[in-house]
Amino acid sequence: MAFERPIPSRLTLLRLRNQERLYRSIKKTVEDARNATIQRIRAIIPKLESARKSVHEELGKTSLLLRAAVSKMGIEDYGKLSESVRPTVDAEFTDLVMEGIKFRGLEFRGVTSPNYGIFAIPPELDSALYGIYSNFSIVSEMINLENLFYTLLARVREYQRMVNAIDNVLLPRITESARFVRLKLDEDEREEFVRRIVINRLLETIGRR
User: Fold this and answer.
1) Under a CB-based contact definition with an 8 Å cutoff, are residues 29 and 162 in contact?
2) I need a labelling partner for 78 at 20 to 30 A (CA). Which of 49, 140, 158, 197 fits?
3) Cβ burial, residue 130 (10 Å; 0-12/13-18/19+)
4) How far apart are CA 163 and CA 35, in angstroms?
């Protein structure tokens, strides 16, 4: 789409100057929102790192118990057990509010314990499963913090796109339009000035006769 030249007039120049002030004000507001969001992200990062560390440590302990259980049962029996016994977790993604921000997060509601039936299992497997169950709360907290982090990060990127659009597209167009109008008005004024001088000289010449 070609850049359309504005109609040169004092009113057009005034309108362009008002637009420039408006977009600079909008840019300042968006930059403030972007910077505030970055500060929120910085505040969330230590919490997220702590949650990840807790999940890693707790699930590491559970993993050791699970390995011990598998070594006692044998991999074949464990495979048969995993095919026939399926513990379930009641969780769903829903709209949550954290740090004053609404986002899509995981809501953990509970666990249904498995029924082993005829299978004889080592105590380490029960301990591993209960370890997993007890860690669902910190896992869901980590997931929600990550979702919040990426939600805020997407906002920062959107704010930056808006700032870039104002800096690189809108303001340059307004500046170029205002410059064109000023130059055209100055040119018209010079032409009008020259025209008046010529007319005055003609009138003086006619008056002398």
Assistant:
1) no
2) 140
3) middle
4) 12
Question: Mind listing the pLDDT tens digit for each residue in 185-198?
Answer: 888 778 787 888 77
Q: Which amino acid is at 19?
A: Q
The string of pLDDT tens digits covering residues 91-148 is: 777 887 877 777 777 777 766 666 665 556 777 877 777 777 777 778 888 888 998 9
- Neighbouring residues of 30: CB distance < 8 A, sequence distance ≥ 6: 159, 162, 163, 166
DSSP state of 35: H
- Under DSSP, is residue 86 helix (H, G, I), strand (E, B) or coil? coil
- pTM attached to this predicted model: 0.68
CB atoms < 10 A from the CB of 175, how many?
12
